[in-house]
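In this notation, each integer encodes one residue's backbone shape. One such record reads:

___
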Amino acid sequence: MTVRIASLALLAALAATGCSKGPKTKANAAATEAAKPGATAKAGDTAPAAPAAPAATGESFGAGVKLPDSTPIATILADPKAFAGKTVRAEGMIVDVCPKRGCWFEMAGPNPGEKLRFKVVDGEMVFPLDAKGKWAVAEGVLSVKDMSLEDSVAYAKYQAEEKGEPFDPASVTAPMSVVRIDGTGALIRDKQ
């Protein structure tokens, strides 16, 4: 019984990694504060970056994008724990958007299967479904959550239900780590 209650509590917490109306996390609040004009960065607050991209126009969300340089999605996914808790800027083609509340989008990396989720508290920013296929420049604090196999199955089931897709629990054969950017700001435009 205790294991079941603990599993249900964890499932509720994992659901919050999808869409939630919960309060801002300390990481989100710290990143939001750090992104404000006049805020000073602390040593180690930002991740190593790729060469600066030219300034671009587009639709801005949240606090906007403040960091001048992007870290490639492939670099982040190759060693996510090296970036955990740090403010990063990443860019990529939007391949999916939250169908319920517009509270997240996924950006594709250059290699097949590389995706990085950009998540915000529900209502803080709302990303339109027609953002799929557009280019995103996203900034926030990188979060890495390691899960047990049981929790991984529950998380995958929740994600499938959210998208209205069928789910086979046997398809999850190993524990997962959820890597995402807890967002403070984004820029979405038509082209790279």
Notes: Residues 1-17, 20-55 have pLDDT under 50 and may be disordered. The chain has one domain: 23-148+174-189.
